[in-house]
Amino acid sequence: MTSRLFPALVAVRICPVPRAILEQIKKLIPPLDGSLHKGQSGRVGVLGGAMDYTGAPFFAAMTALRFGADLSHVICSPTAAGAIKSYSPDLIVHPILNEQSTCGQVTPQLQSLLSRLHVLVVGPGLGREPYMQSFAKLAIQIARESGTYLVIDADGLFLVGRDPSIIKGYRRAVLTPNVVEFKRLGEQIGVNPTAPAHERAGLISKLLGGVTVLEKGRNDLIAVDTTGNEANLKASHLSDLDEAKENTAETIEVDVEGGFKRCGGQGDVLSGAVGTFLAWGRCYEDGAFGDGSIQASRVPFLAAVGGSMVTREASHRGFVKQGRGLVTEDLIPELGAAFAEHFGSQARSGRL
Amino acid sequence: MTSRLFPALVAVRICPVPRAILEQIKKLIPPLDGSLHKGQSGRVGVLGGAMDYTGAPFFAAMTALRFGADLSHVICSPTAAGAIKSYSPDLIVHPILNEQSTCGQVTPQLQSLLSRLHVLVVGPGLGREPYMQSFAKLAIQIARESGTYLVIDADGLFLVGRDPSIIKGYRRAVLTPNVVEFKRLGEQIGVNPTAPAHERAGLISKLLGGVTVLEKGRNDLIAVDTTGNEANLKASHLSDLDEAKENTAETIEVDVEGGFKRCGGQGDVLSGAVGTFLAWGRCYEDGAFGDGSIQASRVPFLAAVGGSMVTREASHRGFVKQGRGLVTEDLIPELGAAFAEHFGSQARSGRL
């Protein structure tokens, strides 16, 4: 079994059997029987890539494609676009985040792009140049307005730490901090420093009004807590029914064995994996496939668990082959087998 | 056995059994058991890459990753950045060495970057454009101030030859001259031209105040000599204890069979390999792992021996496969097996 349940601080709902969660995740996986049109297995966007970083957005966006998304877009600075384009002809790279452009100029471009996306992953290779941080903030605002799922990673979390209001109460968001980012974020939003380690992810979720938190580490913790006052913020894209049902506090530990090499970039793969599950959740929600039994409010938590499981498995498989020499590029070809390992080869290939 | 000992000119300390050196090198190799965080297996930087050369810094930086470093940075001119980025998404490429920038502008950027690195490899693809030479000199000064290990190769050695004071007495440095560079450097710093060939590397070390010299050739010679007057220069990052203990003169010959094809770029692989061992030495020194029994003053010599052994082995393995058509890119995939050949498959994969 691949996950372990912690008693949540306020355990309104505790998942009794992790297998039930696996079964819920499986329902979000698009069928591969020729019944879907282009795009109905996910249109993923990654916002990041500027002067210093070009590999990170590539890893996130390429992961989405190898995970099973139909289309994968990178929204980046012109300073990064050439290199990112060169990594793969399968990516669609939009160099619209120009340092010389105003938010007013970029807004309609972002609105147009985001209207075509099911999820936006904000952060891989974003960096901290002020113009990139500004455009990331703008994109998050536009995503909220259109009900687009969000993954916030890396320097996107730096942005959230400085101004938590930009994400607060938006339950279609998954935050994916690593050890350092998690510690900083907890301090910035005022998590009680004496709280037990395994409860902190849930506390961050609660303080941020019910966003899902994926705390990366030796094992990954995935937490959601919508029981706090902040949960009363009306989430514009949840029906009243959803609002009532999602009053929950839950923390799960994913202990699928990962690799032991801690090369940079594996977090970008994770963000792309979670993003793809979220995109599938949106397609599911829109009725492209599935039985409609999974509530939209449940999607971010399931996506975080599924993304974590497959990424850790891919890291393990890459590590078995490459050992000490593992680089993140080695994870990409492992995603298919890693996915099949946990969700079945039928889910991978569509054939029995 | 892989190395042979020369009687050093002033043999304060002679290593009796090369196996003992191998065992010391092994102590610097980070464990691969999941106990380390990202970065604790080394953060390597390479300074080089301008108008003419882009492959050299790639070879050095990519070698670091395939050797086992967690993160590998290239610090280069904007004229080289696009190509270097395109070679691999796993590298982090900083195009901050702009010909139009002043040293005053670049200094804080270099300080910020170097504060995050365990080693800086100066030279691969550096070239001789005056602005690149100036920035390289600046980076060496900043590295000295922060006690960062240094590898000086290629046109970084041109810089040292013109102004030996920039490296003199800094015992955290390894110089890696090829035949031509070695001859020129010897002339520039005044090595007695009648000295026997196998003593010259030690003489250069002595005249430069105890830096480690890796003289590349048919066999590689690694020498350190801290017995000269120049050794009395107080190395700011060595304790008094180190200072006393490291009063040594030692020369080792590494005769691991290399390839017979002398394609350009193999020296860049070597510089990345030595750099990674130095980064591990820094992590070891900082207590990330290990038993603390290796003195910091010993690290450069061990790193040079280990880097030489693995690089020659990788060259041999590439040559067996490619023969006359060998190119340096062929060495990179051989590094893992070459490493395992000399330091054990457990050291490569973390498993027995």
Automatic annotation (TrEMBL), chains A, B:
InterPro entries named in the record: Carbohydrate_kinase_pred_CS (IPR017953), CARKD (IPR000631), Ribokinase-like (IPR029056)
Binding-site residues for (6S)-NADPHX, renumbered to this chain: G125, N178, V179, V180, E181, F182, K183, R184, D268
EC nos: 4.2.1.93
Superkingdom per UniProt: Eukaryota
Binding site for ATP: 216-220, 258-267
Cofactors required: Mg(2+)
Record function comment: Catalyzes the dehydration of the S-form of NAD(P)HX at the expense of ATP, which is converted to ADP. Together with NAD(P)HX epimerase, which catalyzes the epimerization of the S- and R-forms, the enzyme allows the repair of both epimers of NAD(P)HX, a damaged form of NAD(P)H that is a result of enzymatic or heat-dependent hydration.
HAMAP family in the cross-refs: NADHX_dehydratase
Name of this protein: ATP-dependent (S)-NAD(P)H-hydrate dehydratase
